Write the structure tokens for this entry.
Amino acid sequence: MPHKAREKWLLELHLQHQVRRRSYRRQVLTVQLSILFLLFALWEAAGRLRWIDVLLFSYPTKVFGQIWKDACSGELWVHLGMTVGETVTGFVLGTLFGTLLAVLIWWSPFLSKVLDPYMVVFNSMPKVALGPIFIVMFGAGFNAIVVTTLSITVIITTLVVYNSFNEVDPQFIKLIRSFGGGKKDIFRKVVLPASYPAIVSTLKVNVGMAWVGVIVGEFLVAKNGLGYQIIYGFQVFNFTLVMSSLLIIAVVAALMYQGVAYIEKKLLSSR
């Protein structure tokens, strides 16, 4: 086959592959949206026909009405801004500190042996029980909630990333050493690039963990935020407010997850 003809053939194959990928993605998105629409339709029908207790579960039109009312009054943006700020701060700091701690204990096997039982014990402790201690230490506000979030995200990040560092193929490490590379070269050229998938997976896990930490913290201490809205809704038996807050949390968490997925695509494509 002539060179130009082969190039044209390969280009056509690539274009066909891209078309199939786009078609597949559209099919997946269509099914996802159809399932979501069906769930909301069933929820609405169950509420309207009294198949469920609307006092507890409400139904979509009432929930969206609550969201619209709070958005128009401006109250929603105060609570949403506070919770998203706390979540993003805890998410970023937890991932950063956890990854740095993983690097530190990988770099020093002695430190790894010393800290290993403490990390296991701290990870197994119920973080809700630590909440009151954090409130006394850091005050009833933003700092205590972020620290509660860090208590969940840092150790999980450290354990996952450190285990990924240790699972790197030792043959690659031997290759770097055979060319005279030191520990810095091994980490920069082998260990860190090989651990990108684990770091990204940790980011995905931390999206959920950060929300758990923030909402738990807001349950305990906050006077603003979506967690506070949930507690207030329970206290006054306004479960439509509760469901609207949960729906907003789900949407924002999904957007954060998509952001992490975008980072994953960019990071892994650059390897």
Summary: Residues 1-52 form one domain. Residues 30 and 36 are 10 Å apart (CA to CA). The mean pLDDT is 84.
